[in-house]
What does this fold into?
Amino acid sequence: MNTPAPAPEEPQDLVGIGIGPSNLSLAALAHPLTGLRTAFFEQRPGFTWHPGLLIEGATLQVPFLADLVTLADPTSTWSFLNYQREQSRLFPFYFAEKFHIQRAEYDAYCRWVAGQLPGLHFGHQVDAVRWNPERALFEVDFTQLDTDGEAEALGRTYAKNVALGVGTAPYVPESLRPLVEAPGVPVLHAADYLDHRETLLGAGHITVIGSGQSGAEIFLDLLKSRPPGAERIHWLARTEAFAPMEYSKLGLEHFTPDYTGYFHALPEAVRDRLVPAQWQLHKGIDADTLAAIHDELYQRTLNGGWPDATLTPGVAVRTAGRVATTKVELHLEHTQQGTRSRLTTDAVVLATGYRERPLDRLLAGLDPYLRRDSSERPRIGEDHRLVLDPSVTGSVYVQNAERHTHGVGAPDLGLMAWRSAGILNTLTGRDPYPQPQRTAFTTFGLVGEGPGTGGRAPGQQGTLVPLKG
It folds into this structure.
């Protein structure tokens, strides 16, 4: 629903930029708080969540309780269970016994929320955010877009606080960008998979690059759609194995508020080492998907012979180029063997993940006030606020762009409602959503008083006490 933007003379308590799941969660939890004026802007004409990856049967990697609100307020009107009730599907869902719902169902749920919440302004592209010291407010400039995405009108609104939820963008490795940008042979990011699925299925040979969940789901979908003995699919990955995601119960405690607080308190250099080392916590493949791939491959051996499918981990794409106008040649290197080879293919799907959208252009007007770390990234406090010059009395909250300060849980749906609730608690100066005091059995640090360091006072029996000297 594209509603008119608020009048500029009416300052908002909170303006949200971007309407993905994170800011939709914030809007849903803000909705019942009386006296709180909010407006959320999104340049797209309506809510969509990874439409190119809503593959039939693909499920979320988190339980349905990781919806927009439940882990902060299970009684909310905007919970997934209430959505099921409103759709007259609660009993069928109960009997289905599905703890992990399909991605398409999660997308439908979010669109249901977005279609009913007031204060969401789709078709509005935010162009700049500035601090106005005379008014002690943020100026938010936007462009209202027509149905074709063309500029229709310019506008400005004022806000006491801002929440950035601009999400991530598909990432294409440098060596493959010329192929994506040139016409001819289909070379596309996984984000656009469903839009080009029929074209891909018509290709003689297909290569999937990427070892994460998206790559696995696309490989499986293509495999199931190709005739036995003529699959002609390569699946390549940089990782040393097609590894399962860490999904043990104690491993999942890395996605708790306790671990987030512990991670934030670590030195910057330690945090930077940890994030890439923890890839299997969030970039591995669901064990059921790996099992389904193996089952499908095994099924194709029953009549003798092996499927024409090649799965090779530990491979880097050094360079790539087009052969005439109909094929792509990938220059590969096996990192363990130190060997090199070439692979000629008719289509490429890049399941190479996403990167946080850069905030520099959007926040250029706040640059004089921003505090940065040694790598020139914005410093973000434990309460998810940008660290700004004290002269700025408003707050800029950051959602799903703070992995360098808050760890692997930053983009996780399971921490989304908790983060939104914390933002609203800080913004209102009260606790409309009381936060849990402890969320993990694991004590991540040896000593301390913050999250992730245990719950007993120093000196109590069985408690570690810091040594001096």
Remarks:
- Residues 103-116 form the longest helix (14 residues).
- Confidence is low (pLDDT under 50) at residues 455-460.
- The CA atoms of residues 197 and 260 lie 38 Å apart.
